[in-house]
Each structure stands twice: as structure tokens, then as C-alpha cells.
Amino acid sequence: MDRGVSKYSNFITLFKNYEITTTITISPVYNCLKTMKFSSPLLFVLTSFLLSFTNPLSGAKGIEEALFTWTDSPSTTLNVIWLVKDKDPTLFLWGKTDDQFPSSAEVNRHSFYKGSGLEVCQVQLAGLSPDTGYRVFLGDKEFRAQTLPAKRPNRISFVTGGDMMHSPDFHKDGVKAMASRSPSFALLGGDLAYANGKSWERWLDWIEEYADHAVNKDGYSIPFVVAIGNHEVNGGYGKTPKEAPIFYNLFPLPQKLKSYYTIDLYEDLSVVILDSSHTYSIESQTEFLKSSLSSRKDRAHLFALYHFPAYGIMKGGLNSPISKSMRKHWVPLFDQYGLDAAFENDHHVYKRSKLLKGDKTHQDGTLYIGDGAWGVRTRKPEAKEYWYVEKFEPTRHVIEVEIIDNVRIYRAVNHDEKVFDEFIDKRDSE
């Protein structure tokens, strides 16, 4: 789909035969917001045209590409993220897809990465209508996204995966595989751009491929929720937010400089996002995890998203110190509060565990599925079998989760957009 819709034709169509007064927020030098009022359609269009030329990076790789995320209610909010050249103005307008008059919004601007010459622009749109399409005008492009329904429909689907970009082409293929399932949202499990906390140019490739190709069959961008991985961090493990500046600058989070949080996507579907010892220790998140799970133990669909696996098959498998710590501090809480599935990543292979509880197979246990092969060179496990694993395969993939009534269906989808593994969980439908 061509996302490069000219704003000029759109604006001329929108404002033809109308006399309006609208407020447009422009973010100029050093985050100083100025407000300009336009009393005629012609002046509005001309100003929009001129502003597009004030940014020499307009249309460049990764610039003026919109990303949509959630940190709050997905039925009434949308976070919009994009990049601009340092000190250049930016124009942001938004509205429902059927609105004739776009609105303005205050733009939060801050540094992307020291020496990049770029700034991150963020807007949170709040008070939105559930299950409604919205569009934003950004640079010379129009982007569209949709809020979730207030109540979970009988059928929904989302996609998850991590370890996204050894190369832009691998990443793009994974995004296309994801988009082919037309999910409502995506859960991204870390190691996104493989920038190691400092290679900011790689993020421009990651942003461009996601923004251009993460579009569903109805033309809406696919919003995402994000977790941190070791390749977001300079040093990978045992560090602080200071060593992951791009991750913390780029993505809005419910609490500043905290990579672990919980999001309630529907009234009966929640995801706990955790930091697998990258900028916060495993143990330090235990009380948060207990509080989040205990208050949501009656949810029909309860998931966790994090990077390094508790039940991995590479990098030492169960003997990895990080895995041991997770099974000591986190897994007992998964067991206690009935976590349905944990989405794991990092190991560059596909893995679907058996249902596990108390470090044993159990019919009421948790499914551990991953393990991070969205857009990377895969690894071949050394062993032929693992007691805790039902299926593994060194294949690049994304994972689709479809919920029909209360039945959960997990599908592994390869880069050819073919399903090569499926697991149906009917436990909450009985």
C-alpha cells in the first residue's frame, strides 16, 4: 500500500468551500511550542506546503514515518511517534477518518540520540472513541490507526515476536508476515533494531520498514506494545536505563525510565511486560509482577511479554543464570496466578513448550512460546529433544494468537506467510 498520500490534495479536498479557523501546533527550535491561527483554507494549505520544505529530511529514510503505540487504554488513546531534524518545525494534525476538519495537538519533542541531529516527536491522543479509525497528517504523508473496541469481540487476533532486524530485508519480511494476519495489535519482545544502545542509524531502517509495511487489510497501521531486549542496551545485561538511551527516548512508557509495566487491552485480556535483566534486575520486578498478576488473576486471558526466555533451548538452556533467576522469582507467580502464556524471545529459533507448572509438565500450566526469530539468522539447537519442549524449529517467524470466544489458538507463521505450527488451548472455554 502506498502510504505517501499527498497532504496538498487531501487538504484542498478537506477545506474546499469551507471558511474555518483552526489551531495548528508547530514545534520549532528547542522544543518551544508556538501556535499559529489560520482563518482561511488557502492560507492553511499554503502554510502546510511551505512547512514541508522547511525540513530537508522530509521523506528521508525513517523520517516522518508514524508509529502507533499504547501505554494506556487502547480503546480511548493512541500514542503517535515520529522523528524530525533537530531544530526544524513539525506540523501535526489528526482526526477521525471521516472528519472534514483535522485538529491540532501538543507535540512533546526531545532528543533522539546525541549526535544524530534528530528529535523524537510524541503525541498522546486521548478521549478517543472506541473501535474508531483515526488519521494523522505528518509531513507529506497520511497515516491511519484504529482504537480497540471497548469490549472484546468474540474473535480477535494479535501477533508477537522479537529479534527483528539482522537486516532490513529480514525485518521487512517479518513485518509483511505479521501484516498478512491483519492483527489488531502487536507485542514486540525486544532486540528490535540491533543498535546496541548507540547505533541510531539502524533505528531509521527499523522505523521505516515497520511504518511502511505494518498495515492491515483495511489500511490501518498496526499499533504495538514494546518490551526491552539486550540489543537495546549498550552492554546488554545488568545495566541501567542510562545505557539504553534510544529505547527510552523513542518509546513512551507508562512511567518514565521504567521498562516493566502492565497494559489491559480488553476487560478480560492483559499483558505484563517485563525486563529480563537488561536495565532492571529480575528480582527487583518481583513485587510489581505479583501485584499485577494478583489483581488480574480472574482475567480469562493473561499473558507475559519479555525478552530472554525462562525455558530456552539455546545459550545454556535451563542452566543459564538469567533463566534460573526467572524460574526462581517469576515462574512461581506465573504458576500461582494462572498465566496462560509467556512470550519469550532472544534465542533465534522457534520454540513451543509443553504446558508447565512447578517446573513440570501440567495440564493447568503455562505455555512458553517464542523464541525470537522475527528477522534474524536462526540458530540450530544441539539437542534433538528437550523434556519441556513440544516443538522447535530454526525458522524465521512471527506468532499469531487468535482468540475465538475463550479459545486461544497459537500459530507460528513463517516469512512465506505459511502456518507451520499450531496449538489450540480450550481450557477457558470448558
Q: In total, how many domains does the architecture comprise?
A: 2
- Computed over alpha carbons, the radius of gyration is 22 Å
- Rough outline: globular
Q: Main beta sheet: strand number and arrangement?
A: 7 strands, mixed
Explain what this protein looks like in three dimensions:
It is a single chain. The chain has 430 residues and is of the alpha+beta class. The chain folds into two domains: 7-146, Purple acid phosphatase-like, N-terminal (Immunoglobulin-like); 155-429, Metallo-dependent phosphatases (Purple Acid Phosphatase, chain A, domain 2), CATH 3.60.21. It is built from eight helices and 25 strands. The strands form six sheets. A seven-stranded mixed sheet has the order 14-15-16-17-21-18-22, covered by helices on one side. Helix 1 runs antiparallel to helix 2. The longest helix has 14 residues, at 200-213. The protein is globular and about 55 Å long. The two termini are 41 Å apart. Residues 4-59 have low confidence and may be disordered.
Task: Please outline what is shown here.
With 430 residues, the protein is α+β, with helices and mostly antiparallel strands. It has helices spanning 7-15, 41-52, 168-180, 200-213, 245-250, 286-294, 321-329, 331-337; strands at 22-26, 34-38, 67-69, 78-85, 92-96, 103-104, 108-111, 118-125, 133-138, 141-146, 155-161, 186-188, 224-226, 261-266, 269-273, 301-305, 341-343, 350-353, 356-357, 360-361, 367-370, 389-393, 397-404, 407-414, 419-425.
